[in-house]
Specification:
It holds the Pfam family MbtH. Helix content is 24%, strand content 30%. The chain is an alpha+beta fold. The chain is elongated.
Length: 70
């Protein structure tokens, strides 16, 4: 049975961020998709999730924040 690469506690991950300030947990073995850059890692899954929880405090895309005057 295949393991979901986004839920493998034994794997290494990156935290990615895009131009909208949105974050993603990404397996370190996979190529970083266009439009995303590495923000943290490679590290274990929990460390990356902790990083996301600490720094991604506003779920709104950056363009919406700007449109709302904030």
């Amino acid at each position: 049975m295949a393991t979901n690469p986004f839920e493998d506690d034994g794997a290494r991950y990156y935290v990615l961020i895009n131009d909208e300030g949105q974050y993603s947990l990404w397996p370190a073995f996979a190529e970083v998709p266009a439009g995303w850059t590495v923000r943290h890692g490679a590290a274990d899954r929990q460390e990356c999730l902790d990083h996301i929880n600490e720094y991604w405090t506003d779920m709104r895309p950056a363009s919406l924040v700007r449109a709302m005057g904030g």
